[in-house]
Amino acid sequence: MDEPSPEGRTSDEGLTSPEVLKVIDKQPYTLNMNPGVSVYGETLKKISGIEYRYWDPSRSKLAAYLRKKGKEFDFQENMNILYLGAASGTTVSHLSDLLTGGRIFGVEFSRIPFTKLLGLCETRKNIMPIQGDANNPAAYSFMVGQVDILYEDVSQKNQVEIFIKNSTMLKKGGKGFLAVKARCIDVARAPEKIYEQCIDELEEAGFVILDNRDLGPFEKDHAMIVVEKKV
Ligand code: SAM
Predict the structure, then answer these.
(1) Distance 13 CA to ligand 1 centre (A)
(2) Strands of 170-181's sheet, edge to edge?
(3) Which domains does the chain have, with CATH numbers?
(4) For residue 133, how far is its CA from the centre of ligand 1 (angstroms)?
(5) What is the pTM of this model?
(6) Residues enclosing ligand 1, CB less than 6 A?
(7) pLDDT for 97-142, tens place per residue?
């Protein structure tokens, strides 16, 4: 497994624009869309008068994927994302920093994190909060339309099924990020076997697997599976 290191994940490699994602002291940071405000206690740093927020890989599986040299990290400023399992908005807030001209539709069904997410949306206008159950996409698909990226982090036994159901909103050629929590699917089986099973199910549903990365040591027994929707 690769050693975690964000080195080289700079705009020079064409990840995203240099202004919004920066490597400072070998750590990932995003440009703070709401200067002076730390969303979840993350460190704020100013470089030449511009404020950046530390993107903590032990708090965000997408930051962990980046630190594990995930090769499909391609978030462009005008993209729209459907994000399932938004919680209080830790990862969503960093996507909000990155997608300055896009929208993040954040679906969350638990009241307490959703209330915090609503607070975040007051200052970050590119986040569209949706209180709903990701098992029932028909309840919100009319608000979302078609998106460039489908991201899921719901920690449920049927996480692949939920992902497939919601993929009707993913554009052809769009990418999907599925943060798999192996222990939610089966506590007794080896995580690697569970990731293989998820990949089989995704391939059967017509997705092409682009990447599959264990997120340890940042997130134990988790993997990020990245797919492309071909049809
Ligand atoms: N993605 C978040 C982040 O990085 O900031 C953390 C997500 S947390 C691991 C999983 C979240 O998914 C919880 O807040 C939970 O309430 C939510 N969730 C689980 N099942 C869901 C469902 N069927 N529909 C909507 N939200 C769900």
Answers:
(1) 31
(2) 127-131, 103-108, 80-84, 147-152, 170-181, 222-229, 207-214
(3) 61-229 (3.40.50.150)
(4) 10
(5) 0.93
(6) 60-61, 85, 87, 90-91, 107-110, 113, 133-135, 153-156
(7) 999 999 999 999 999 999 999 999 999 999 999 999 999 999 999 9
